[in-house]
Amino acid sequence: MSGPDPIGPDPFGTAAARAATLSAWRESPTRLAEDVAAEDDLASVGYRDRLFVELVTNAADAARLGGIVGEVAIWADGDGVHIANTGAPLTDSGVRSLLALRVSAKVPDDTGAVIGRFGVGFTATAAVAATVEIRSVTGAIRFDRALTADAVADAGIIGGPRVPLLRLAWSSAGAPRAGFATEIVLGLAEGVVPADLLAAATAQAADLLLALPGLHRITVADTVFEIDRTDRPDRPADGLAPGVRAYRLVVTVATGGGPAEQRSFTEVEHGPSRWLVADDGQPVGTGRDVLWAPTPTDIELSLPCRLIARLALTHDRRHIHPDADIASAAAGYVDLIRLAEPADSLALIPRPHRARGGDDARLIDAVLDELRAAAWLPGTDATTLVPSRAAVLVGLSAELADVLDDVFADLVHPDLALAQHVPLLESLGVTQIGLAEVAQRLTGVERDAGWWGRLYAVLAPLVATAVDVEELAALPIPRTDGRMNIGARGLFTTHAVQTPLRWIRTVDPVADHPILERLGVQRLSVADALADPVLQTLVEEAAESVEDGDGADSGAAGLADEVLALIVADAAAPVPEWLSRLPLPTGDGEWRSADELLLADSPLATVLVDDHPFGLLDDGFAERFGADAVRRLGVGWGFSVVRDELPTGPDHELPDEEQWWDASSDGPEAPERFSAVRDLDLVDPDRWPTALSLIVGDESSAQALGDRGGYTAWWLRHFAEVDGLLLGEYRAPSDMSLAGVLDPLDHPLADTLAPALAALPPESADEASLFLARVGDEECAVAPGVARGIYAAVVASCRSGAIGWADIDDPGGVRVVSGGVAGTQGVTVPVILDEPWWAQAVDPDLLVVGPSDAEAAGTLADILDLPPASEEFTADPIDAGTYTTAASTEVVLFSAETGRSPAGEVRIHDDLRILLSRNGSSGAREVRVRWWVDRHGVTHLSRRRD
Questions:
Q1: Which of the residue ranges 45-49, 498-502, 847-851, 898-902 would you say has the lowest mean pLDDT?
Q2: Phi and psi at residue 185, in whole multiples of 5°?
C-alpha cells in the first residue's frame, strides 16, 4: 500500500513522503527501529501525560499565526476524541514537520507568542491513539499504525513487531467542525477510555487558558472555559512601571451543567516573565505549583504566585536548559506585589525555607533580592518604601499612622505592623523601632498642642506595661508656656486651666491626655496649685514690691491673672489665707493687696466709717474674673475672716486681740484654732444693725461668730453698741434664762446673733455682778425660776474658776422664792436654802433658792453674804415617832417620790410636826412637814393619810 492514496486527492504529497520514508527504511533497516524507539520514548517518557497540553499549545500557536485569539473544542464520539481549533490551518511545511521527528515548521519570535519549536509535542498522541486524523480547511491527513504496518510489509522491509504511528501519513477526505480551522480526531488505542481523557482535559483547561494568551475559550464536552484579559483599572496612575508591559486583570469563567464559577487573577508581565496571583488569596491552581514556560514543567515552585516565563527548556519541555538562568525570571514580581492590598502584600513574599529544589531556591533568592532593593513596601501615606529604608512599629494603628504621617516618612503600613510579621520584614531589611525610638525621633518636632494631643490619644493603646512607659521617658510634651518638655518628669497637669502658671510647669491643656499621667505627669488639683509654697513666695515678693512702690512693674499683673484663672476653674477649691496678699489693680491705677480692697458695690462699704483704709478694685478687672472669684481671693464684699490652724499668740493684727487672748488663755482651754471676723473696729457706730446682718448673712463670718468663746463673738459683746448698749447687755429673744434681767436685742436676726449677746453662765465678775444686781432690783420683773437659774449659774462660774466670787459686787438685794425682793442688810435677812427639807419650814419671803447642792449653796451664801438656812434656824420633831426599816412601805414611797434614800435611821410619825426657831429669837413656832432630817441625821417621815 505504498502507491497512490486510496482516498481522493493528496494535497500535501503524503504518497511521495511515504515512498521516501519506506525507501529509507528499506536501505537502512535499523532506521525503522530507531524511529520506533524514538517515538515510543517521546510518547511514553518525554511527553507522557501531556496530550492536551501539547495539542492546546499547538492550537495557541495556530491562533497566533492566524492573527486571532483562538478557541479550542474537545469532545468524544464514536470516532474517538476530537480536538478542534481556530487559527492558521494545516500547511505543507506543517505536514512535513509532523512526518519528521524533532523538526518544527514554526519560527519562534522574541515575544514568546509562538511556543512550539522542537517538532515533537504532537508525538504525545501516540501514547493514546491507534489512528490520528488531522482535518483542516486546507486538506486532511491520517496516521494509522495498522496501515503503516501493512506498508512496511508490502515494501519487504524487515523490522520488529512494532511500527511508528506518526512517520507515514495518508490523505483523507475529512473536514473540520464548522467554525474551526483544524480538527484532530484520535482513534483511541485499545484500553484507552474517552471519559478519562475528557476529565484530564477539563482539569487542565483553566490553567492552559491562563498560560496561553493566544486562546480565549476551551470547550470540553458541555463545559466551556473562557478568559477575559483587560487592563487593570487600578494600575498606577502614572502608567506602567519601567520594564512592565502590561497590568491585566485575568478572569476565568467555567460554565457547565451546574452554576457558573468565576475566579479573577492579577497578572503582571515584565520582560520574559508573567506573574499571576489569584485575587481570592487562594493558590492559582490545585496541588503543588510548577514553573510554566509557558506550558507546565516538572520544576516545582513554592512561590505564592504562578510564574509563566520564557525560559529555554530541554526537548521534553520538563526542565530548564543548562544554559538558562531561572533567576532572570524574578523580574516583575515586585510589580505584582505593588498591586496587592497592604494586608495581602506580605503573603506574597516567598519563604526560602519552603523551597522545593535548587531551581526554586535560586528563584526565591532572586525575588527576595529584587524585593529588598525596590520600592514596593506599603507605607503609611499611600507611598511605597524600599525595605532597607523602612521601619516597622509593632502595633501601629491607622490613627497613629495618620498623625505621624508628616513626621515619619518611613513607617510601614499599619496592616503590616504586627508582631508576627516582624521576622519576615527584618529578613527584607526593614528596621524594627520601638516606643523609645519614636520618642527620640519626635524630639525637635514642632507642631501645635492639638497635634500632640492627638498623638498621645492614638499612642495610648501601645502603652500597656511599665517597660512601655520607660521607653517613652523622653517623649516631648508641650507646656502651657509654649516650651517643650522632654519627658514627663517634673510636669503637672491641671486639666481645667489653660493659662500658663509661672510657678508650676504644666502640660498645655489642649495636648493633655490621661496617658501622660501614666508616663509620670502628676495630676495637680486647683487646690494643690493654689497651695504651692513657690506661689506663696511669689505673692509675698509681689506684695513687698508693691509696698515699695513698684506697682505693675512687680509682675503682679501676670501673677494675678494666673491665680484668678485657677480660682475661676474650681469654685470649690480652698483658697489659702496668704493669697489675700496678692496685689490687684485699684480703680485709680494703683496696686494693693486683695485684702486691702473692696468691690465698688460691696455691702461692707456701706457700714464702715467714712475714712476707712480700703481701696476699690478696678471695675474692669472685677468684671473679667467675676465677683465671686475676687471675693474668694480676699477682696472685700462682706466682712473678711482671718484663720489660723495653729495659733500661737495674738499676732493677727485685730483690735483688742491681746485682751481676748489673755481672757481665753486664762480659761481651762487655750484656743486650738483661730477664726475671726476682721475690721470690726471700722464699723460706723450708727450702722451696727446693718453690719450685724452682714456678718450673719455670710457663711464664713457667721461660722466665726458661732463660736461664743471666739474672738468675734467676744469683741461684739464688749465693743459693739446698739441703741446705746453693748451687745453683751442684751439677751437673745429666745433666751428666757435672763428674762426680766436683760432686754432682748431688737434685730430681725437676734437669735442668730446669740453668741454675741449675754448668756449664762456669766463670763466675768462684772457680768455676774450685773446679773445679780438686776435680779435683786425691785424694778426688774424677774421670776423666781429665772432668779434661781442665775444664782446657780453664777455659783457654777465661781466654782469652775472662771471668776472669783470675791470679785463680785454686793447686789444689795436678793430675789426670794416668793418673787419679791429682800434686802441683805438688817436684823432679819433672807437665808440661802442649803438643805431641801428647809424649804417646807422657812417663810418664802425670807428664802433664797439657788443651786440644790449644799456646798454650792454655801458658795452662794458667801457671794450674797447671807446665812444658810440650816445655820440660821433650829428645828426638831415634836415627838420621837416609830422606828422603821428601809424596806417599809413609807420608806419605799418616800424614795420613789423624792429620789432620796435615807442614809440612817428612819422614824414614822402619824402627824409629823417640828418646832422651828431662829437663832437669836426667843419665839418658836410649830410647823407641819412631810419629812425631815434632824441634826442627828435621823430621817422622819409622816405616815400617808387616806
A1: 45-49
A2: -115, 120
C-alpha separations of 817 from 189, 792, 859 in Å:
152, 14, 18
Helices (H), 374-445: 398-404, 422-427, 435-442
CA distance 673 to 646: 5
Question: pLDDT-derived band of residue 74, with 50, 70 and 90 as boundaries?
Answer: very high
Report how far residue 372's alpha carbon sits from residue 430's, in angstroms, rounded to the nearest whole number.
9
**Residue 426 DSSP symbol:** H
Query: Terminus-to-terminus CA distance in the chain, angstroms?
Result: 173
Contact indicator for 165, 145 with CB cutoff of 8 Å: yes
Candidates 442, 458, 363; CA nearest to 408 is: 442
Q: Tell whether the torsion through CA atoms of 743, 747, 749 and 752 is positive or negative.
A: negative
Asked whether the beta carbons of 89 and 181 are under 8 A apart, the reply is yes
* Cell numbers describing residue 767: 457680768
50 within 8 A of 197, measured Cβ to Cβ: no
Given a contact cutoff of 8 angstroms between Cβ atoms, the answer to whether 506 and 524 are in contact is: yes
Q: H helices of 79-139, where?
A: 92-99
What does the pLDDT look like over 439-451, one tens digit per residue? 999 999 999 999 9
Cβ neighbours of residue 936 under 8 Å, at least 6 residues apart? none
Q: Which segment of 317-321, 447-451, 747-751 scores lowest on mean pLDDT? A: 317-321
Give the whole-angstrom CA distance, residue 658 versus residue 660: 5
Closest Cα partner for 33 from 164, 167, 123?
164
- Using CA atoms of 680, 681, 683, 689 in order, give the dihedral in degrees to the nearest 10: 60
Is 494 in contact with 508 (CB distance < 8 Å)? no
Q: In this structure, which amino acid lies at residue 351?
A: R
| Predicted TM-score (pTM) of this structure | 0.61
DSSP H helical ranges for 443-506: 449-459, 466-471
H-state helical runs in 412-479: 422-427, 435-442, 449-459, 466-471
For 510-519, the pLDDT digits (tens) are 999 999 999 9
